[in-house]
Structure to design on (141 residues):
């Protein structure tokens, strides 16, 4: 572990400490490390060829006409990128599905957009995370 000094405006430091306290970070170093990692993951997603992983969460009405079928068909179409999914019957009317998608960031975004924009999906969100390998994709200049 390397150590270095950081200069920061007092007001910004107060806000950093408040954020750390609110989220339960044990130290400024830990919150700073996580902020840097979040930025690096966001940067990784900007490279359309970078291998990434994400989770797509969708909520939809169980009785929406053909929707469950449509969503299953879409997932079959993208079976090479879809790692797995989990389906939860939330209540009498609604289902929640979490789909784990892995591949080039451009493909993962396209698949997520397709699932989320499917007619009848009430809410959907892609969480962009990392395989843990932060190196640039092969061939990236
Ligand atoms: Ni269900």
């Amino acid at each position: 572990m390397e150590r270095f000094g950081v200069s920061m405006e007092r007001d910004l430091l107060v806000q950093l400490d408040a954020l750390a306290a609110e989220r339960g970070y044990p130290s400024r170093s830990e919150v700073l490390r996580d902020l840097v990692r979040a930025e690096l993951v966001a940067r990784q997603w900007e490279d359309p060829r970078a291998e990434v992983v994400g989770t797509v969460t969708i909520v939809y009405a169980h009785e929406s006409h053909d929707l469950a079928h449509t969503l299953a068909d879409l997932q079959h179409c993208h079976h090479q990128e879809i790692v797995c999914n989990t389906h939860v019957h939330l209540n009498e009317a609604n289902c929640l599905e979490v789909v784990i998608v892995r591949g080039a960031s451009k493909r993962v975004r396209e698949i997520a957009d397709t699932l989320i924009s499917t007619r009848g999906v009430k809410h959907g969100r892609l969480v962009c995370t990392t395989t843990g390998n932060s190196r640039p994709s092969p061939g990236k200049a």
